[in-house]
Amino acid sequence: MAPRVLVIEDDRVLSRLIKEQMTRLGLDATAVATWAEVEAYLAGHEPQLIIADVRLGDGDALERLPDLVKGQPVILLTAYGSVRDAVAAMKAGAYEYLVKPVSPDELALVTRRALDTATLRRDHRFCRQRLEATEAKADFMVGQSAALARTREAIVMVGPTDVNVLIQGESGSGKELVARAVHEASERAQRHFVPVDCCTLQEKLFESELFGHERGAFTGADRMKRGLIEGAEGGTLFLDEIGEIDAAVQAKLLRVIETGVFRRLGGTKDLQANARIVAATNRDLAAMSEAGGFRADLFYRLSTFVIQVPPLRERREDIAQLVEHLIAHHNFSRRIDKALSAAALRSLHAYDWPGNVRELKNVVERAIILSGTSRSIGPEHLAFGGRRGGDTGGVTVSFDHDPTLEELQAAYLRLQLQKQSGRRAKVARVLAVSERNIYRLIRRYGLAES
C-alpha cells in the first residue's frame, strides 16, 4: 500500500500542486484546507507524513505541532520564515521547516527523506531480530532426516505465497524457527518478523499488545500505543501458542484476518492491517474447535497451510549432527574443542527427548561445562532431567485403565511438582520447557495445589 500523505494548505493552487506532486512520487495524498478538516481526517485515518502550512485561517500549526508529531513526521511550510519560528518548530518535533516558495525538487527530496527516516526508526528493532534469528535459526534446521526434509519442503512451498500458515508441534521442537524460516522465504523478508506470545498476558493486556490502545482506553493508558499488528506492517505476525487466546480475542483476530481491518483498544477509527499471519500451537486445534474450545471459523482461516514440526525422537539420526552444531556454536567468543564419544551418542539416541531440540541444547551446554578440560564428552557428562552419568533414570506412573496422552502429561507433571516441592522454575528446567508453559499446564490440569 502506498504511504499516506496529508497536505494541509489553504492556498488552493499550491495545495493542488503539492498533492499532484505527491501522487507522482507514488504516494496516496489527501489535501485539506482547515484544521476542522484535519481533525475529521485524522479521526479516521493515520497518515505516514504530514505537510502543513504554518498559518491557516482557523489556527496555527506551531500550536498543534506537539500532538501531530506523535504519530508521524511533519514538514512545515511558511511564507513568513523567521529564525525564531524555525527553532521553535524544530524543538517541537517538526521534521523540516521550509520557506515558500518551495521548489518541487526540494520538497520531493525532503518528503522521501522524512518517510525513509520514519521507516528506519520503526525498523531499528527489526535489525536486531534478524541477527538473532540468523544465529538461532540453524539449531532446528540442522540434519538430513526424512522428517526434517519434509518440513523444509513445506517451508519452500508456502514461503513465497502470502497465505496464512499454522505450525503444529511439541514444545521445544522449533516452531518459532520454522515460522522465521517461512518469513525469510517470503517477499516480506525485508520487513518485520514480530513474535507474539499468546499465553503470558491477561485478555485486556493481550488486546492492548496486539491491537494497541488509545489514550484513556483504560486506567493507566496515558498515551496512545501502537500494537504489534502495526509493528508487523508489511511483514509477518507470528502468534505463538495461538490455542491459549480467549474467545473475545479470537473474534477480533478473526475480523482482522477476514477484513484486514482492526481498531485499537478504545479507538473508533478503522486501521488497515498488512501483515501475514503465521500461528503455532502444541495443541490439537481441530479437536478443540470440534469441542467448542476454539472458534472453528478462526481455525479454518489460520490453517490454510499446515506445517507439522517433527519431535526430536522422530529424527534421531539428526542428533549427532545437531550436537556438533551446538558444540561449534556454544559461546561464540571462543572455540570449543569438544567431541562426543560413541557411548555418549548412544545415550542421546536412547533418550526420548520430551523437551525436543530445546532440551538437547540444554543437555549439550551442561555437558560442555561438566566435561571441564576433557576434550571428550562421555555419558558421565550428560544430564537428563537433572540426572547425571548418562542414567536416564525413570519414573513410574500407574493407571487402572489405558490413559490418554493428556492423562499421562498431567500425571507426570504432578509427579515432578511433588518431587521438586512445588518449585515451578525447577520443574521447568527438568522438563526443558519455559516456566510460562509450566504455569499454563498447571492451570490446564488443575494442579494449582500440587
Automatic annotation (TrEMBL):
The keyword Electron transport does not apply. It comes from the Bacteria. Residues 141-369 form the Sigma-54 factor interaction domain. Keywords: ATP-binding, DNA-binding, Nucleotide-binding, Phosphoprotein, Transcription, Transcription regulation. Residues 4-115 form the Response regulatory domain. The modification 4-aspartylphosphate is found at D53. PROSITE patterns: RESPONSE_REGULATORY, SIGMA54_INTERACT_1, SIGMA54_INTERACT_2, SIGMA54_INTERACT_3, SIGMA54_INTERACT_4. This is Fis family transcriptional regulator.
